[in-house]
Every structure is written in structure tokens, then in C-alpha cells.
Amino acid sequence: MNEALTHLFNDCATAPGALGCGIRLPDRVSHVRSYHKSCPDETLEKTILHLANASALLATHDLTAQRLAWTFAGGRIFVAIRPDGAIFSLVTRTDANAIEFFDRMTLQFYFV
Amino acid sequence: MTEPQTQSQKNPPHVLFVDDEPDFLQVITETFGELSSGRWKLYRAGSADAALEILKQEKIDLAVVDINMPLLDGMQFLRILARRYPNVKKVTLTAFATEENRNACLATGAEMFIEKPRTADGFKSVFVILEELATWAPAAGFQGLLKQVGLEDVIQMECLGRNSSILEIQNRQMSGRIFIEEGNIIHAILGEEQGQTAFQKLLAVRGGEFKLLPFESPGLRSIEGPWEFLLMEAARVRDELASKILATPAATPPPAEEQLAPNVAVTETLVCSAQGDPIFQWQCTDVLDRVALLQNIAQQAALLSQALPLGKFERLEIRQPDRRTVALFGQDRLVFVSVINTAVPK
What we know:
- The structure holds two protein chains of two kinds.
- Chain A contains three helices and five strands; from the N terminus they run αββαβββα.
- Chain A is an alpha+beta fold.
- In chain A, strands 2-1-5-4-3 form a five-stranded antiparallel β-sheet, with helices on both faces.
- In chain A, helix 1 packs antiparallel against helix 3 (about 100-110).
- The termini of chain B are far apart.
- Chain B is elongated and about 70 Å long.
- Chain B is about 35% helix and about 25% strand.
- Chain B has ten helices and 16 strands.
- Residues about 1-10, about 140-150 and about 245-260 of chain B have low confidence and may be disordered.
- Strand 3 of chain A pairs antiparallel with strand 14 (about 315-320) of chain B.
């Protein structure tokens, strides 16, 4: 894991309501970091894979997204997608307002 | 004394099995026929084209599809099913259960991905799962925020669809109900007020929540007349009210989130039932593609919520450089709205 990614994961730990985060690089290698026992690493690995599939699926409907926000009753998944296909996601509780924080983290994601 | 009837006894599920192995088809239909004590109406198809013929003629509730078939394989067949028969629930049954196959099947609209059973217990387990799915119906009701979907739009949709429902509207100050029976607005109640006055006041509400509830007769009919006229009249009264408020110097400005951004325009709207039947659309270039998209999103969300303990899926926001799209998933309505920011150069 490179230094920029370590910084990004360390910073994401301070996101409001952070449960976990992950990144999937263009070479399909994933790195994840859990911040809460409800989101263990293996779950985050699966999540990032599903998010990659979902982003590809949206693109087939002419919706090539830069950002996605999946809202559930008990949590939100923020996703940023780089032009090279790399994906960054942050899982938070629903009651925490982490969107601005995620926007700031997305800038760091571009340097990973 | 007679036992109360279950959902599957009242409406026996029509289940179609599609598999190119005749022996397996025979075993599974015989076994499931026995396990359902003859309640299930079973159909067999040895190929995708034979299945499509059956689907043209019969109302199928559940299609159980083998993904490894020659010519038109299960994946392609699932895509056709999702587009042509969005109400049919879909399950893939395969001898080759891999993570890739699972993801691909679920992405093409299958509700479940199940490994082919090999033992008697396996058949029983699969039967229980399929019966649950075949007889499952979405819970009644739908809710949303007034700023997300206009109240007039919802009433219009209910009236155009000749539906019967109760629209419950509430915010911090008040709570009221509008009764729609077979596409006609028949009654409204707001505190002590009833009839057209209550209806007009409810339509003038800014901000708040609404719920679409199953219809129950209000016991009286306080509103008469075509719904188009009633909506127009309510809009006129609301505009009059707004101009009076604007003319008052001490009027409090509305919260920022209720004001329209100057460079934002709605480009596309689609509302459909949870089963994917379009109810209302505006400027959708390909309604079927959008319905398939909503169903695919719901499927992906189901996968995400299986992996993470996040509860019920509510919505997906998609941000592109010049537009924002929101897909809302209510209990019995799916809403797709796309908004363009005209200030962003193309």
C-alpha cells in the first residue's frame, strides 16, 4: 500500500459516522480499511467489488458517473470513480453528514 | 371449520422452468409438483424460445432459468425477460455456481441465484425458497418528500392510472388526507375542514412528507368534478396565496432547499410500480431501458445490503459533470429523475 493510500485511509477514519472505506485500482487490486466491527475487511472487499460492477452497469445505461451515493435506512455508501476506472468508497452511518468530508477525500483519491 | 387460506392457496403460483436437460426438467417439475401438493401450476421449456412462447400465452409469476443453455443462453434470456416481462420474478438455477456467474445473473435482473439441488433435502430447500419468492408481493404503501416529487404529480399519476388510494400529507404544522377512488378525487380532510377547501389547502403545503396508502372508503364524498379541474383550481388558489405572502413585507423567505436553482432544469422523469410498470413518464427517450436500469439498481442495492448491514435501500444519487440523477425506491413506486445544470459547458 503506498503512502498516499495510507494517508487517505487514516484520514477517512475521522469521517463523521465512518464504518469503513475501500479502493479498487485499475489493475483490479482492492485495499480496504474497516473502522467498525459491523464492516469487517472481507465485507468491504465484497462491497467494493459490487460497487465496481454497479458502476459498470450504470455506464451501460449511459450514466458514467463521477460520484454515487447509495442511501439505505441504516447507512450510506459514497463512491468516487476516476476516469481510469479506479473506485474509492466510504461507508458511513445514515445519520452522519459525511458528504462534504467525502468530497474533500476525493481530491486525495486522485493522487493515490 | 375451514383453515384460513394462504396467499399461495388463493393464487397458486404459475412457475416456468427453463432448462435444456429434459431429465432434470422432468425431475424438478415432478418433485415440485409433489412438494406443492399440486398447488403450483408448472410449465416446462427446453429452450429459451420455447419459454418465450409460453410467456406469450400464460401469466407466469416466476421463471426458473438454467444459465447454461445452447443458442440463447440463460443470461441473454434473463435480459429479454427483464425488458419484456418486468413483472415476472426470475431465479437462475445452475450446476456451475461461481461468483462471476452470480454477479452476472443478478446484474441482469435475476432475484436469486441458486445452485441446482442434488439431494431430496436440497430440492425441499429450493422449493421453500421458490415458494417464498413466487408468492411474495411488495408491501402496500409509498412515501416520499414533497420536494422530491410534486404532490400534483402524484395525484395526477393516481388519477391517470384510475387508481384508488389515500394520500396522507403531513408536515410539522398539519396532517391531512386526500381520497382518490378509481381515478376520481372524492374527499379531502384537513383538521376540521373537508372538501375542496381542505384539498386546496393541502395542495398549497410547502415542504413535508406524504404517504400513499391503500384505499379505504371515507364514508362520505365531499368533492365532485373532474380531477383536472380540481388540480387547476387548487393551483390558482395556491398562486393567489403565494402572491399575498410575497406582498407582505415581513414574509419569511422559504428555506433555501425549497428554492429553485436558476441553472437547473429537469430533463427526464419516470415513475413506475415496484414491478416495473411505467405509470408516468416525461421526456424519457427509452422507457424500457430506464425501467431495466431501475431494476438493475435495485438488484445491485440488494447485493450491497446483503454484504453490509445497512437495512432497506432508499435511493441512489448519480453525479455526472453536467447532470445529477436520482433514483428513489419507495415501497410500491420507483422514481427516476434526471436534472441538468445548464451552467456547465458541454
